[in-house]
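Long-time lurker, first post. I've been practising inverse folding by hand and with some scripts of my own, and I keep getting stuck on stretches where the structure tokens seem ambiguous. Below is the full token string for one chain I'm working on. Before anyone asks, I'm not after the true native sequence, just a reasonable design that respects the backbone. If someone could post their per-position residues I'd love to compare against what I wrote down in my notebook.
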């Protein structure tokens, strides 16, 4: 089994379309491409198959905080390796930003566990979403 995580250079929507077909609406594809244009995107492959992508969007060029998002078509295989690679990547993010923020669906237990392993501190739910923050260690 080979796991590859790399920074994405090409259009994210084209990769998802090539790998999975038309599983997202045009609006969802537009949101992913817009997210990529506003920040940075990384992709994860297992045995040559695209399994997920995530990105960081800073609110401004000078900000010390960034918003993180993630997309996967299904449960990411090889959870232990995925969590470990995510922890290493999060350490790199926190070298650049004091904190990483985001929101997670209340219904997505696996995403909440992943975020917990990354050090997320959750806030009370708002409209079906759990805001969180991951802070740089002092």
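-- Answer (accepted) --
I ran through it position by position. Result:
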């Amino acid at each position: 089994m080979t796991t590859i995580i790399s920074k994405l250079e090409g259009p994210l929507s084209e990769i998802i379309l090539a790998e999975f077909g038309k599983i997202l609406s045009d609006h969802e594809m537009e949101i992913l491409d817009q997210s990529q244009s506003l920040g940075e995107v990384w992709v994860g492959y297992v045995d040559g198959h695209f399994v997920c992508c995530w990105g960081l969007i800073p609110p401004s060029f000078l900000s010390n905080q960034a918003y993180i998002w993630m997309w996967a078509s299904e449960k990411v295989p090889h959870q232990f390796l995925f969590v470990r690679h995510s922890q290493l990547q999060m350490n790199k993010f926190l070298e650049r930003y004091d904190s990483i923020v985001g929101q997670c669906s209340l219904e997505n237990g696996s995403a909440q566990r992943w975020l917990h392993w990354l050090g997320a501190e959750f806030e009370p739910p708002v409209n079906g979403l759990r805001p969180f923050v991951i802070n740089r260690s002092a």
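A couple of notes from the structure itself: The beta strands are 3-7, 40-46, 49-57, 65-71, 99-105, 121-122, 129-135. The chain has one domain: 3-135. Happy to go over any region you disagree with.
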